[in-house]
């Protein structure tokens, strides 16, 4: 084969440090755009982004030359630096350590886009912790609840 073809689709979730409600409506669209730029500079495509004041959901098409861990390091580091530059109220901004990255198939893209788009409504009734536990169970990922906070 003369070239490499890759389709790796990921639903990624991560939160602010101590789930502080720091992702305000005033910076959220620009934050998502910034994250999209970080993805693009790593030969990845951000297909969808949304969340609440304390966490984000991303749908990413991972490029063929970057690992998930490398991409997430850059996304979280660079976006944290960017948020801190948006005003004094964001000076202490930090992302929580870690993230959840869940593989999806092409046939699930539309459903995941809808799920991500509905985050604000979803979290009116479902706490972030419960949502994360549901993903970990659905993907059969072993976890200890004490490490989820």
Instruction: Give the overall average pLDDT.
Output: 95
The number of helical elements comes to 5
**Residue runs with pLDDT of under 50 for 5 or more positions:** none
Question: Would you count the extended β strands for me?
Answer: 4
Whole-angstrom Rg: 15 Å
Q: What are the secondary-structure elements, in order, as H or E?
A: EHEEHEHHH
Principal-axes geometry comes out as globular
Overall SS class: alpha+beta
From the N-terminal CA to the C-terminal CA, the straight-line distance is 46 Å
Biggest sheet record:
4 strands, antiparallel
CATH topology: Alpha-Beta Plaits
Residue share in β-strands: 15-25%
What is the architecture at the second tier of CATH?
A: 2-Layer Sandwich
Tally of distinct domains: 1
Q: For this structure, what is the CATH homologous superfamily?
A: Transposase IS200-like
Strand order of the largest sheet: 2-3-1-4
Instruction: Identify the CATH class.
Output: Alpha Beta
Considering DSSP H and I runs of 4 or more, what fraction of the residues is helical? Answer: 25-40%
Task: Describe this structure as you would to a colleague.
- By secondary structure, this protein is α+β, with helices and mostly antiparallel strands.
- The chain has helices at 28-41, 68-84, 109-117, 119-122, 128-138, and strands at 8-15, 45-51, 55-62, 100-104.
- The chain has a 4-stranded antiparallel β-sheet, with helices on both faces.
- α1 (28-41) crosses α2.
- It is globular and about 50 Å long.
- It starts with 7 loop residues before the first strand and ends in an 11-residue tail after the last helix.
- The mean pLDDT is 95.
